[in-house]
Amino acid sequence: xxxxxxxxxxxxxxxxxxxxxxxxxxxxxxxxxxxxxxxxxxxxxxxxxxxxxxxxxxxxxxxxxxxxxxxxxxxxxxxxxxxxxxxxxxxxxxxxxxxxxxxxxxx
Length: 107
Hints:
Blueprint: H1 3-106
């Protein structure tokens, strides 16, 4: 082998090694970037899940308030009828008691 051939061989080996190191470092960097992206995606998925739960709970509370407001007139009417019935029953009892006392006093 001549000096030129040896130089060419050594240069080729060094170039090949350089290309291998470059490709290795390139793949390592891409792998690191993919891991970072995966981590970001996982965090964003958790945030989306949490937001979906909050939206669901907010809609649920909104539905409760909507039902409360729509049922309010009926509930008030029921409340008024209970009070009126209770008042009427109490008046009847008081009148009966007064009548019994009058009868007892007249005897």
